[in-house]
Write a structure and sequence with these properties.
Helices cover about 50% and strands about 10% of the residues. It contains 11 helices and 8 strands. The chain is globular and about 55 Å long. About 35% of the residues are buried. Bound molecules: magnesium ion (MG).
Length: about 260
């Protein structure tokens, strides 16, 4: 099967490069949460944050990455053991993920309300991605975006890029469930509508998310793609390359016909 019936795409790190906005938002949220934060980020912090981006699954972890870097936690340790670091912070400093999340969303909401242009300007579509998305939307393939970002932000960014994407096919952070579950639900819905097996392809830049889907027996026919242009490490890309389940895909192949994707 060289054409998917359902193409599910992650947003950040697949369709949109929001690294600069990510750091700006993380820094502002960090300043709100930690009263002793300096007025300006120290030199090199943004670059260190960009390198640590692969560990972030959900927005509330962003100010925690800044906190860890400000405390001098070694980058190698963050990359290797982020889950444990998060747990220790949450316990030792009595941090509530919902409060961290509210700080991040609050920063974004206020920024967008005050100056949406400057916020949008910090996001860039990866080259060729918007055109490809428009092509797929016009084809027989049904395309969904599954993201841990809020749908309303995704809508705004796609509109800015000239992509008229159906709102009902953007499943964002507000669904509050793992991507595997969302993928399963979309597939079941399409199966019921189309009364045929749904060839499903999923493109994601977070390797751990692909591994989580790999662990679901009922999703074992989903073709999994790791976007090599997104937020993942060299080590994760080489794991994908040697995996018999996950395909490593380049931006160049992504921009081409589906037949190029599986080679
Ligand atoms: Mg991503």
């Amino acid at each position: 099967m060289t054409t998917p019936t359902l193409l599910a795409l992650d947003f950040d790190g697949v369709l949109c490069d929001g690294l600069i906005e990510y750091f700006e938002t993380a820094w502002r949220a960090y300043q709100r949460l930690w009263a002793d934060a300096p007025s300006q980020p120290p030199a090199g912090l943004a670059d260190a944050f960009y390198r640590m981006r692969p560990v972030v699954e959900t927005g509330w972890e962003m100010p925690l990455v800044v906190h860890a870097l400000m405390q001098g936690v070694p980058e190698a340790g963050i990359l290797l053991d982020w889950g444990a670091i998060v747990q220790s912070y949450v316990q030792a400093e009595n941090l509530v993920p919902a409060a961290l999340s509210a700080a991040v969303d609050g920063v974004r909401d206020e920024w967008i309300a005050a100056d949406v242009e400057s916020w949008l300007a910090l996001h860039r579509p990866y080259p060729g991605v918007s055109d490809r998305l428009v092509q797929v939307l016009a084809s027989s393939t049904t395309v969904y975006i599954i993201s841990t970002k809020e749908s309303r932000f995704i809508m705004q960014l796609l509109q800015q890029q000239g992509v008229n994407f159906p709102a009902s096919q953007i499943i964002g952070k507000e669904t509050k469930q793992p991507k595997a579950k969302t993928l399963r639900e979309i597939r079941q819905k399409l199966e019921a509508e189309q009364a045929q097996p749904i060839a499903t392809w999923f493109v994601e830049d977070r390797f751990k998310t692909l591994q989580a889907i790999e662990a679901q027996p009922d999703l074992n026919d989903v073709e999994l793609f790791l976007a090599d242009w997104g937020y993942n490490t060299l080590e994760e890309r080489s794991l994908a390359e040697s995996s018999d389940r996950v395909h490593l895909i380049t931006l160049q192949d992504f921009a081409q016909d589906f037949a190029h994707w599986l080679t």
